[in-house]
Amino acid sequence: MKRVTGLGGLFFKAQDPKALAAWYERHLGMKVEPWGGVVFRWADDPAGTEGTTIWSPFAADSGYFAPSAAPFMLNLRVADLHALLAALRAEGCQVDDKVDESEYGKFGWVVDPEGNKVELWEPPAGR
Predict the structure, then answer these.
(1) Which residues contact 51 (CB under 8 A, 6 or more apart)?
(2) Contacts 24+ apart (CB under 8 A), 64-69
(3) Which residues of 28-64 are buried (b: 16+ CB within 10 A; e: fewer)?
(4) 60-66 long-range contacts, CB within 8 A, separation 24+
(5) pTM for this structure?
(6) Are 119 and 58 in contact (CB under 8 A)?
(7) Nearby residues of 14 by Cβ (< 8 Å), 6 or more positions away
(8) Mean pLDDT, to the nearest integer, of 102-116?
(9) Structural domains for the chain
């Protein structure tokens, strides 16, 4: 079974996400989208589709990374979220029971041995 297919995004906490994003836009030329993050488009996606990687600061008090105390969270692209979550559970990993499904794809979470929350993302078909 294919597991991780790429880096979906890097999410991290910031004291002032809007100001930090503006700094990255001004000084590093990263085009910040209205929702506050940056979309990097892949020129050569191994999946044969046009993939993206997201860079996005979150509020310092965001609970989105819980139960991890880390100030960051990786988002990894996966080929089959439900199959991977089942395999991770069978392997004894700490997997969140919650799965989100929306027009943006399917999202699930696992916590690594050091307590870092990792978001697993199955993009919608054709993305």
Answers:
(1) 6, 41, 42, 45, 77, 123, 127
(2) 64/11, 65/11, 65/13, 65/117, 66/117, 67/111, 67/115, 67/117, 68/111, 68/115, 68/116, 68/117, 69/115
(3) eebebeeeebbeeeeeeeeeeeebbbbbbbbeeebee
(4) 60/13, 60/14, 60/15, 62/13, 64/11, 65/11, 65/13, 65/117, 66/117
(5) 0.80
(6) no
(7) 20, 57, 58, 59, 60
(8) 92
(9) 4-122 (3.10.180.10)
Tokens 């990374």: give the residue.
Answer: 65
Token readout for 59 is 């509020």
Q: Above 70 in pLDDT, residue 48?
A: no
Nearest to residue 65, comparing CAs of 126, 10, 19? 10
For the chain, what percent of residues have pLDDT higher than 90?
A: 69
Cα 118–Cα 56–Cα 22 angle in degrees, nearest 5: 160
